[in-house]
């Protein structure tokens, strides 16, 4: 599907619609002011070494562009330009460290009510994952956000080059990430 077709379909549905995608492709080349109008963009960022490691575990021949931070930042900058305000950025490390607080802050930032019951779900595959099931194995087993401490992931060879290329884009986006007060993060 094209970006325009996905946006048209989402707009045809009642109520708020959440569309998730990855940025190994350069969507910023297809986002026009007309398509972006009325969309609340959200970007989830993850420490690049963890992303690179998990990406090449599933796709060993991944290219530097496949890692996606440069494409994600270009889309972030475009969405900011088109909306006149920065999009919401959520740090995945915060999400797994303080899930309820991070989701509560996210909902407040985008104007949705926080629903505690949405913090857990039944394990299982989702039909919309069929085409990309290999990427969703862990998610399919999950029943909620798992508390975890970020761990540095050692990289070697060309993966270090990927890291060096994408780290500045991650840092720029992380500068805009939602933050929690000390009290909220330890609640």
Describe the secondary-structure layout:
Elements: H1 3-12, H2 33-36, E1 42-45, H3 48-58, H4 64-67, H5 69-83, E2 88-91, H6 92-97, H7 99-110, H8 137-141, H9 158-174, H10 182-186
Helix pairs in contact: 3-9, 5-9
Structural account:
The chain has 187 residues and is mostly helical. The chain is 48% helix and 4% strand. It contains 10 helices and 2 strands, in the order ααβαααβααααα. It has helices at residues 3-12, 33-36, 48-58, 64-67, 69-83, 92-97, 99-110, 137-141, 158-174, 182-186; strands at 42-45, 88-91. The protein has a two-stranded parallel sheet. It is globular. The relative contact order is 0.17. The model has no long low-confidence stretch (mean pLDDT 85).
User: In which order are the strands of the major sheet placed?
Assistant: 1-2
Which residues form runs of ≥5 with pLDDT under 50? none
Give the DSSP E fraction (strand runs of 2 or more residues).
under 5%
Determine the oligomeric state from the structure.
Answer: single chain
User: How confident is the prediction overall: mean pLDDT?
Assistant: 85
Shape: globular
Structural class: mainly alpha
SS element count, helices: 10
Q: Helix content range of the residues, please?
A: 40-55%
H and E string = HHEHHHEHHHHH
How many β strands by DSSP? 2
Largest sheet: 2 strands, parallel
Distance between the termini: 42 Å
Evaluate the radius of gyration.
Answer: 17 Å
């Amino acid at each position: 599907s094209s970006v325009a077709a996905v946006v048209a379909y989402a707009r045809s549905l009642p109520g708020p619609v959440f569309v998730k995608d990855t940025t190994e492709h350069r969507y910023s080349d297809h986002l026009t002011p007309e398509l972006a109008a009325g969309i609340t963009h959200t970007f989830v960022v993850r420490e690049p070494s963890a992303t690179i490691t998990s990406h090449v575990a599933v796709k060993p021949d991944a290219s530097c562009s496949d890692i996606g931070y440069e494409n994600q930042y270009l889309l972030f900058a475009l969405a900011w330009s088109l909306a006149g305000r920065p999009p919401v950025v959520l740090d995945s490390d915060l999400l797994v460290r303080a899930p309820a607080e991070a989701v509560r802050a996210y909902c407040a930032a985008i104007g949705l009510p926080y629903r505690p019951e949405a913090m857990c779900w039944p394990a299982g595959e989702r039909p919309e994952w069929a085409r990309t099931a290999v990427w969703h194995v862990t998610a399919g087993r999950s029943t909620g956000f798992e508390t975890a401490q970020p761990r540095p992931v050692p990289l070697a060879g060309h993966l270090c080059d990927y890291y060096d290329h994408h780290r500045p884009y991650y840092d720029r986006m992380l500068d805009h990430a939602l933050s929690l007060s000390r009290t909220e993060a330890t609640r």
